[in-house]
Automatic annotation (TrEMBL):
Pfam families documented for this protein: Fer2_BFD
Protein name, as recorded: Ferredoxin
Coiled coil: none
Residue span(s) of domain BFD-like [2Fe-2S]-binding: 2-49
Organism: Lampropedia cohaerens
Biased composition (Polar residues): 69-88
Region described as Disordered: spans on this chain: 68-88
InterPro entries: BFD-like_2Fe2S-bd_dom (IPR007419), BFD-like_2Fe2S-bd_dom_sf (IPR041854)
Length: 88
């Protein structure tokens, strides 16, 4: 369904961006939603909120580096193959 008629932005497109952890302001800049007449702003904001509420873990995951922790102080423990030989 088209949410923003002025910029032809669909609900799927907004949801796809929201699921990556983007907020409304970032999505607005990226897609141009609610930048002309503004009639779609309420619906677009509501969609972003619904997506964040449905998948709260998306905001915790580091979007720039999938699989990496959001907190840069947490470093993944590198696999050391010599540890495996010690365990056997
Ligand atoms: S409908 Fe989105 S800016 Fe006009």
């Amino acid at each position: 369904m088209i949410v923003c008629v002025c910029r032809r932005v669909s609900d799927r497109e907004i949801a796809r961006h929201a699921h990556t952890g983007m907020g409304f302001d970032e999505i607005q800049l990226e897609l141009g939603v609610a930048l002309q007449c503004g009639r779609c702003e309420c619906m677009a904001r509501s969609l972003v909120q619904q997506c964040h509420a449905a998948a709260p873990m998306a905001a915790i995951e580091n979007a720039n580096c999938p699989g990496q922790p959001a907190n840069s102080n947490e470093r993944p423990i590198p696999w050391n193959s010599s540890l495996r030989s010690q365990a056997v």
